[in-house]
Write a structure and sequence with these properties.
The protein is α+β, with helices and mostly antiparallel strands. The protein has helices spanning about 35-45, 90-100, 125-135, 190-195, 205-220, 275-290, 305-315, 355-370, 375-395, and strands at about 10-20, 50-55, 60-65, 65-70, 75-80, 100-110, 145-150, 160-165, 180-185, 230-235, 240-245, 250-255, 265-270, 295-300, 320-330, 335-340, 415. A hairpin with a 2-residue loop joins strand 3 and strand 4 (about 65-70). Its cofactor is pyruvate.
Length: about 425
């Protein structure tokens, strides 16, 4: 791994507002914010707008570091690098108040940074982020929960913080249009495919023109056929795309192709009433575009049917599920975090493991397989009985009404593969 480089893993913030006047629900709401106001918010984050597109439902902006989506009563900001995303909360609350909007829920998510020591305040640690969120959010968001969802692969945990007022605490599973969100993080991209996200030496094309070429060359344009795409290519490398799929749905892709810390993300929003076979097809196309060695998928939804399709779509492509954890959050529903690696990838176990150890372990695997069956039968039976008893003890989830940020930040995530 490189000592330093561009941080591909994004931070994602989603804020939902409720209008003081119900008529605002059918109006423009947050979309009334002028460009100067949006620039003020992004200046606090330390990024800028490079391209934009919109439809009747929302506006989508490609940023110098990822994306911004503005709906009448919802805003989503996703930024990579060393941006200070959480510093956008206070100016956004200020502008929303002047539009007659009150914050009713907040969700913050991110993966594990590749270069954590390069992150500025308040992103130096998840605990610092939670403290900053606690201090920035209004008191009406009294139901709060922070959790680090673990992973068997080193440095691939999923960090989640949500907060909600009482009225929006629970999402109704049978609402007319319940949405789900897939957040996919991919590392160790195929080197040949990653080279497609580099601009050629001497190429003087604009970011918009080069971005369109990359969209076609890589096959990204075929992931969600028919979507309205706003893309941008960075100099000398890197790529971002926002796609308006249908109505208020979107997808977004961001690529950091440098060898040693290559990374790509794909985010997709859909409805649980859509054909779930489409989800499987989208995932297959994403894997074919990037061919990552490691892939993590976070599914936020009230239904279990979506995340169960993830493994079914990825396993035939040579991706093996290494871990799967689930947790429940206020105003978000269930969050399921799954990690996959290519079947040829060896997981490094222990801080002292090296490449020679891993090769030796790979060669000796058949012998260890035989020896494992020579263990005492009673020992193996006792282990199975303990696992069954553990499964029976899993009960429903609960969240605390007020988070104690002075305690260690751990959640009640359950590992479904243990």
């Amino acid at each position: 791994m490189a000592v330093s480089g561009f941080e591909g893993f994004e931070k994602r913030l989603e804020l939902h507002f409720f209008p003081d006047d119900p008529a605002v629900l059918t109006g423009m709401g947050l979309r009334q914010l002028d460009f100067e106001s949006l620039e003020q918010v992004l200046r606090a984050v330390q990024c800028t707008v490079v391209s934009a597109v919109g439809n009747h439902y929302f506006d989508a902006y490609v940023l110098s570091e990822s994306s911004l989506f503005v709906y009448p009563t919802k805003i989503i900001i996703k930024t990579c690098g060393t941006t200070q995303l959480l510093k956008s909360i206070r100016p956004l609350l200020h502008y929303a108040c002047h539009l007659g909007l009150t914050l009713c829920s907040c969700r913050y998510t991110r993966g594990s940074f590749i270069f954590p020591l390069a992150q500025p305040f308040p992103h130096t640690s998840f605990k610092e982020e939670v403290i900053y969120l606690e201090e920035s959010l209004p008191s009406n968001l009294c139901y709060r929960k922070a959790s680090v969802m673990p992973c068997k692969i080193p440095s691939h945990s999923w960090h989640v913080f949500t907060a909600s007022d009482e009225a929006h605490l629970v999402i109704t599973p049978h609402a007319p249009d319940v949405l789900y969100t897939l957040e996919i993080c991919m590392t160790e991209l195929d080197r040949v495919l990653a080279r497609k996200f580099f601009k050629r030496p001497g190429d003087e094309k604009t970011g918009d023109t080069a971005g369109k070429e990359m969209t076609e060359l890589t096959g990204i344009g075929h992931i969600n056929p028919g979507s309205l795409i706003c893309d941008f290519a960075f100099d000398p490398c890197g790529y971002s795309m926002n796609g308006i799929i249908d109505g208020d749905r979107y997808s977004t892709i961001h690529v950091t192709p440098e060898d040693g810390y290559s990374y790509a993300s794909f985010e997709f929003v859909g409805s649980i009433y859509d054909d779930l076979d489409d989800v499987a097809q989208v995932l297959k196309k994403v894997v074919q575009v990037f061919r990552p060695a490691t892939m993590s998928v976070s599914t936020t939804c009230t239904s279990h049917e979506v995340w169960t399709r993830v493994g079914g779509a990825l396993e035939p492509l040579g991706m093996k599920c290494r871990s799967c954890t689930v947790d429940e959050f206020p105003a978000a529903g269930n969050v399921v975090f799954q990690t996959f690696t290519t079947r040829r990838k060896k997981i490094k176990v222990g801080a002292n493991a090296n490449s020679r150890d891993m090769r030796r372990a790979d060669v000796c695997r058949p012998f260890r397989f035989i020896l494992s069956y020579q263990k005492d039968k009673k020992t193996r039976k006792r282990k199975r009985d303990m696992e069954k008893a553990k499964a029976k003890r899993i009960k429903g989830f609960k969240w605390e009404k007020k988070l104690d940020v002075n305690r260690e930040i751990i959640g009640s995530s359950k590992n479904l593969l243990d």
